[in-house]
Amino acid sequence: MLLLVALVWGASYGLAKTAVLFYPVLGFLAVRFCITSALLQPAWRGLTRHRRVAVLKAGVPLGLILLSIFVSETYGLSLTRASNAAFLISMCVVFTPFVEWIVLGFRPSIAGFVAAGVSLVGAWLLTSGATLSLNGGDALILAAAVLRAMMVTFTNKLTRGRDIPAFPLTGVQTGVVGLGCVILGIAVLPGGLPELPHAPLFWSSTGFLVVFCTLFAFFAQNYALRRTSPTRVSLLMGMEPVFGALFAVYWLHETLSARAWLGGVLIMSASVWAALRRSSSMPEIKRMVQKNKRTVPSSLTDTGLGDR
Fold it and tell me: Which residues cross the membrane (predicted)?
């Protein structure tokens, strides 16, 4: 199941790049996330008023971060190659310890700095190889990677120790993204959002992203994390950028030089290594909690998985 999630998430870059050929970025995101939020509305049934308020208090700010992520990522994807995006977005795993340092006060280990350095070398090889001159799309993807690291950290901060069910929370987050894109589209685009496209390829791409890259992926992650170790999850999900690059070559007929492939492998390796080190720290963190009786962010053991 986790390999399937990595596969469909890898395919998401090429499919999103295809969808925005038929409809503006903000309109595409509005359609995708409004549909996703609507499909998750049944999850609200049976929730008490207190739990609904708790979900909204966490879901709205997290939804605003998610809105920033997808606007940056999808605009960036429209301006760069899908294969570049697949590798660069995986740097969120490396960025997460540094965001935790700023937000939660936990300084990264020396290994975290090494992983960040390896990732930067990989980005240099992937995007230019001569001078580090990221194009606008690459820069937006890297911004989205930083925002994903913020998402992991603030999700932990806002939900830790609170009775907040996952599916209603995802429904609020995706609703905020969908509504935010509608408002931005009306305010920013000349003439507002255009009429919905009739192209079958747009709707098939969007439908795939809604059903497989959000609903199925969310279920599969939760199912797997209850039945296997975070280390195994990290290893399997580390295949996502590889699938993304291969799908871009197959679907969009992109080409990657040997230097670019080397850069992508360095980024992916650093991300998987960072995730594995965080997973392996679980026993030590548990002992520290028991010894010091203090709360330690669960994102320290997070595998870097985000809601695509």
Answer: 26-47, 54-72, 84-103, 110-127, 139-155, 167-189, 201-221, 233-252, 258-276
Spell out the residues 6+ positions from residue 116 whose beta carbon is closer than 8 angstroms to its own: 94, 95, 98, 270
Domain for residue 307, yes or no? no
**Domains in the chain: how many in total?**
1
User: In 3D, which of 267, 296, 225, 294 has the Cα closest to residue 126?
Assistant: 267
Ramachandran sector of residue 123 (left: φ over 0; alpha: ψ -120 to 50; beta: rest):
alpha
Could you report the per-residue pLDDT of 22-69, keeping only the tens digit for each? Answer: 999 999 999 999 999 999 999 888 899 999 999 999 999 999 999 999
Residue ranges of alpha helices (H) inside the chain are: 2-19, 25-39, 49-79, 82-88, 92-104, 110-127, 136-159, 166-188, 200-210, 217-225, 230-237, 240-251, 258-280, 282-292
Residue 298: DSSP 8-state: G
Residue 308 counted as domain residue: no
Confidence (pTM): 0.79
